[in-house]
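User: Fold this; tokens only.

Assistant: Input:
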Amino acid sequence: MFRRNFLQTIPGIVSIGAVSGTNTLFSPAKEVQPITREYWVSVLERVITPVFESLAKNELKLKMPVESKPTSTDRPKYTYLEAFGRSMAGISPWLQLPADDSPEGKKRKRFFDLALVCLDNATNPSAADYMNFSDGGQPLVDAAFLAHSLVRAPRFWSEVPEKVKNNVVQAFLKTRTIKPGYNNWLLFSAMIEAFFLKYSYPWDTMRMDYALKKHSEWYKGDGMYGDGPDFHWDYYNSYVIQPFMLDILTIAHEKDMYKDLYTLEIKRAQRYAAIQERLISPEATFPPIGRSLPYRFGALQLLAQIVLMENLPNAITNGQVKNALSQVIKKMIEFPGTFDANGWLNIGFMGHQPSIGEGYISTGSLYLCTTGLLPLGLPAVSDFWKSQPEDWTSKKIWSGVDVPNDSALY
């Protein structure tokens, strides 16, 4: 079942197996073809199907491979929660959409129902696929991604049976024994507390307040935070920092807290979204800078989230962002070696590149790529999905188009 090529069902889309190592689809000399919402759904479906179908059968630990550095012998303790938590973080806005009888709606209902069973198996101490929420430091990270998914999808959470909700809460409480690092990890603790706050469970104000205040101190300017006191030239402002800040502050803002910081973070996130859009080259690539490159187009989560919030900066149109993200996703997902023979993601940025992964990277880690698909949480009738594709900023500039100058936030 996992070998099925979902892309072959889309008219006009080149199948995974037909893509050669030299990809001419993205040559500047040729016009790229518009990519549909249906294609985005097929990508999400292709990526998460092995995870969800295996976990729903209590067979994730049995079936999922664990690729990692030879020296990283502890990754099997963590990789399964990584795969589920991160897949949920990407799919949850799509699950939040109202049910309908369209072909996409039927697929969404299938994954909604699978996700309910998966959440039960992942948090039920009696289940074969019960996951590690307390042994080592890594469980804090991926419990937070799971919590993030649940705050992104209140409709889904409302359908979770009470017994499963209790198991989820107990699993999240286990992470309080883990001391977060003095860096973006503070936001993992804060996200779990934000989940408790949103759904009216007792919550620890200090864990949230400390994370938000430290990141306010670590702001470096022009839409970028340090990862701790130092600045890192990588994509952690997009993998973690700003998406977590946005959703934690949104929850707090709903509770009449941190109003000024919420307003400030929106402006900073819009500026960073503008930077991310400009980082996409005319060939639909972006710089392979810094840590965690095997998260692939998850590096553009912040831009995707600002789209989801329908809060793009005025200088950027829906059409150019939709086109840019679509071409990046297509280029990366269709490159040979992205998936193994059974449909699981391989470590790599473009295809299979095991050396590009750090010691903390394993198969489950890779599913953070799904967060690049957050705009699927917008209905098909939204301005983003109805927009006509346009050239994005760098493509315009490198084609000689006269565009307004860029400028810092302040």
